[in-house]
Specification:
By secondary structure, the chain is of the alpha/beta class. It contains 13 helices and ten strands. Helix 10 runs antiparallel to helix 11. The longest helix is centred in the C-terminal third of the chain and has 19 residues. The protein starts with a strand and ends with a helix.
């Protein structure tokens, strides 16, 4: 199975270099790396990438900045393989990632998403366990062997707390193209897309084998949109929509979970001190409303 590793790029050169080198270190060489530069001001990362001289690497620079979801869609347009991963330009693959995805896909040929095991790293590359990720680990179903999930059990679990790590997911390209990424969402577009796929009968294979390193740092989109409340405005929209859509399917338990969105409220509450320290009154209002309304 050739895997297309699509990497939307806009970020630090050092993290980008580490991400690319982790692809080159794969034990299974059957991959193609496509880096889509969303007009990052510094051209040095792209020049370095092209200097590597590897035929499996493609570098493209957008004519204009497309933004997060727009660049995701551009990446999906460029995929030529049956499966792909939308890897963050600051994340890292462990050496067995491609091989493990090939193994799981061979065992579950019709699956729409494969969620592998993930370890979280900080800005310096050290493995960390922030509170949010510890909660994710508690909410995530156990899968010492790959297990296929679907239907209300799956949607309710993800709506209770999104334990998936978007940049690590191996996607069936056909399923992503069917629905696409919503242009109005910038930080929860992955959850919205997954809900579309699963409500249409799609499935996810969960595998505890750790083959991906997900980087958390203060400069990420999800971090700064959490403190100013914009992340939670988008989450509120998605949860309200899902409460209605899950109910329409007769998935009442999932609908109740979406309406309550307890872990999202708790996350917003954790951001309140940060917004107060930043004297962000608008952000405080959004966070308070999301936490208590």
């Amino acid at each position: 199975m050739t895997l297309d590793i699509m990497m939307p790029f806009y970020g630090r050169f050092d993290h980008f270099r580490t991400a690319v080198l982790s692809v080159l270190a794969q034990t299974d060489p059957d991959w193609r790396l496509v880096v889509v530069d969303d007009v990052y001001p510094d051209t040095a990362p792209g020049e370095w990438l092209q200097s590597l001289g590897d035929d499996r690497i493609v570098y493209l620079r957008n004519e204009r900045n497309l933004g997060v979801s727009g660049n995701f869609d551009r990446c999906i347009e460029l995929v030529t393989a049956e499966r792909c991963v939308l890897m963050g330009c600051d994340d890292e693959l462990l050496p067995e990632y491609v091989a493990r995805m090939a193994t799981v896909a061979a065992r579950f040929p019709d699956v729409d998403l494969i969620q592998p095991g993930v370890e979280v790293i900080d800005e310096t590359g050290q493995v960390v366990r922030p509170l949010g990720d510890r909660i994710k680990a508690i909410l995530r179903p156990a899968a010492p062997e790959p297990v296929q999930l679907a239907g209300e059990r799956l949607t309710a679990s993800l709506l209770r707390g999104n334990w998936a790590y978007f940049p690590s997911v191996c996607w069936r390209v056909e399923s992503v193209r069917r629905f696409g990424f919503r242009a109005d969402l910038h930080v929860v577009q992955d959850l919205a897309l997954m809900m579309e796929i699963f409500r249409a009968g799609g499935t996810l294979v969960l595998d505890d084998t750790t083959v991906f390193r997900y980087r958390r740092h203060s400069g990420s989109v999800s971090s700064y949109t959490a403190v100013d409340g914009k992340r939670f405005q988008q989450e509120r929209t998605v949860f309200a929509e899902e409460a209605a859509r899950q109910a329409a399917l007769g998935w009442n338990r999932a609908s109740r979970v979406a309406r309550a969105h307890i872990t999202s409220r708790l996350n917003a509450a954790l951001q309140l001190p940060k917004a107060a320290l930043a004297r962000d009154t608008a952000g405080l209002r959004i966070l308070l409303r999301h936490t208590f309304a």
